[in-house]
Specification:
23% of the residues lie in helices and 27% in strands. By secondary structure, the chain is an alpha/beta fold. α7 packs across α8. Bound molecules: adenosine-5'-diphosphate (ADP) and magnesium ion (MG).
């Protein structure tokens, strides 16, 4: 399709001696120092109204079978957690958005990653629009990062940043943060939606053309403010969000969107004075070791976050309602789903919860909303109601239906393997899952691991 370009005339002033142009008339030319040499000229400006393309590539129609595969080796970032979240390392030429509340540790994480990636063969340019070079250096010293080849730039004008990219040809560019960068020919202050979107589009164009990997850092307010990086989610290849749990000790990095790897993948980090430390086995974080029996109302459920199985402890407290309306207070679980479980326990298992206050909490501050958590939550509530403790070495996995039946869940083998690794001795799972019998027989401590299959919640509640 032919694109019509609009043109417009503009008045400029040109020096008759050296050709210096200015938007205003000048008495003396700043270039050749001559006086009275400026004359008015009309200049025709073609307004670029052509639709801008985000990527450079386009191809003819080809059957899928004929397309040759390019195998691009992924770069490892030096942090195994970060690599796993990215889907097995960094995909060259991708655009990665790292969002999170201010102060959560975005700059820290990316500085650590940049420093570990930077080398002669892989130049990394870290552009900070928020901090001076001395401040970045101060952080790097605190984190013990001494990489000589990491290139730093403190700049907010996108043109200058792109100029630096052209000059130094980095393989990886870090932009900290997108809210501080601006394009001079656009109206709107830095951080406005138009600026953010345009600047990112520019970077995407650059990244896809030159095989440059770009990390874009962006602040999101607690409410996930729209004017922030959320407007970019569809442009970039990967969106990672940095979150913190309620106790604010650990940082959870979550892949929200990923063109080159699984989503919902999480990595858990701890913020220390020497930077973010990986927590390779987060299940241990969410579980408490009990001497003997756990108190009543405590059960362990086998959850999965992304591809990572997590054993999580859920606690319930059930007490008689003092006033007419029973209270239901939940944190870390899905509120409506838990109400449904209360109704199922009442109707199908004969637990009279209608006159009881029910409190449910997931320890460690994690959020578990998948249906596979149902059985664990139901067990915790039943145990609290009956004041009968649940065996602390048992994991409960299963979705509960409205009829009180147990439904199969995905990734059961992964969940059971994790339970085994952590030394659990028994798992109660839905019967329908029995067709798959490829689960472990012995746990991490060499003791037998018993997988018990049940078909209803009532049956499961007999297995405390
Ligand atoms: N000297 C220090 N010791 C320990 N932690 C620190 C220190 N200085 C900063 N931090 C931690 O680093 C965090 C700031 O990280 P930063 O990467 O700047 O966040 P962001 O870039 O997401 O705004 C602070 O919230 C604090 O937890
Ligand atoms: Mg920062």
């Amino acid at each position: 399709m032919a694109v019509k370009l609009k043109s417009k005339t503009k008045t400029v002033y040109k020096c008759g001696q050296c050709g210096h142009t200015s938007l205003r008339w000048l008495g003396q030319c700043p270039d050749c120092q001559q006086w009275n040499t400026f004359a008015e000229e009309k200049e025709t400006v073609v307004q670029d109204k052509a639709p801008r393309r985000l990527t450079e590539f386009s191809s003819g129609v080809t059957p899928l079978s004929r397309v040759s595969e390019e195998s691009v080796p992924r770069l490892t970032t030096g942090s195994s957690e970060f690599d796993r979240i990215l889907g097995g390392g960094l995909w060259p030429g991708s655009l990665i958005l790292l969002g999170g509340a201010p102060g959560i540790g975005k700059s820290t994480l990316i500085l650590q990653v940049s420093s570990s990636l930077a080398s002669e063969a892989t130049p990394v340019l870290y552009v900070s629009g928020e901090e001076s070079l001395a401040q970045v250096k101060g952080r790097a010293s605190r984190l013990g990062l001494k990489n000589e080849s990491l290139l730093l730039l403190s700049e907010t004008n996108l043109e200058n940043i792109l100029e630096a990219v052209r000059k130094y040809q980095p393989k990886i560019l870090v932009l900290d943060s997108i809210q501080t960068v601006y394009k001079a020919d656009l109206t709107g202050s830095p951080g406005s939606v138009a600026q953010i979107r345009e600047c990112t589009a520019e970077l995407l164009h650059l990244a896809k053309g030159a095989g440059l990997t770009v990390f874009i850092l962006g602040h999101v307010t607690k409410e996930g403010d729209l004017a922030g990086p959320r407007v970019l989610e569809h442009i970039v290849d990967t969106v990672l969000y940095f979150e913190t749990e309620r106790q604010q000790i650990h940082r959870i990095l979550r892949a929200f969107k990923n063109r080159f790897g699984p989503t919902n993948e999480i990595g858990v980090f701890e913020m220390t004075s020497v930077g973010l430390k990986e927590i390779p086995n987060p299940s241990e974080l969410f579980l408490r070791q009990y001497e003997g029996a756990a108190p009543s109302g405590t059960a362990v459920l086998g959850a999965v976050e992304g591809t990572r199985p997590l054993m999580v402890e859920v606690q319930a407290l059930v007490s008689r309602t003092a006033f007419g309306m029973p209270r239901r207070q939940m944190s870390g679980v899905d509120y409506n789903r838990t109400l449904l479980l209360i109704a199922v326990l009442d109707k199908r298992c004969g637990l009279h919860l209608e006159s009881q206050d029910v409190y449910v909490n997931v320890t460690g501050g994690l959020e578990v909303t998948e249906p596979a958590a149902d059985l664990g939550i139901a067990c915790a509530m039943a145990s609290a109601y009956r004041e009968k403790p649940v065996d602390s070495k048992t994991v409960w996995i299963g979705e509960v239906g409205l009829g009180g039946e147990l439904r199969p869940v995905g990734q059961l083998a992964d969940r059971l393997n994790e339970a085994c690794k952590l030394g659990f001795r028994r798992a109660v799972v839905p019967k329908q899952a029995a067709a798959n019998s490829a689960w472990p027989r012995k746990n991490g401590s060499g003791q037998p691991f018993d997988v018990q299959m049940v078909s209803t919640v009532s049956e499961a509640l007999e297995r405390f």
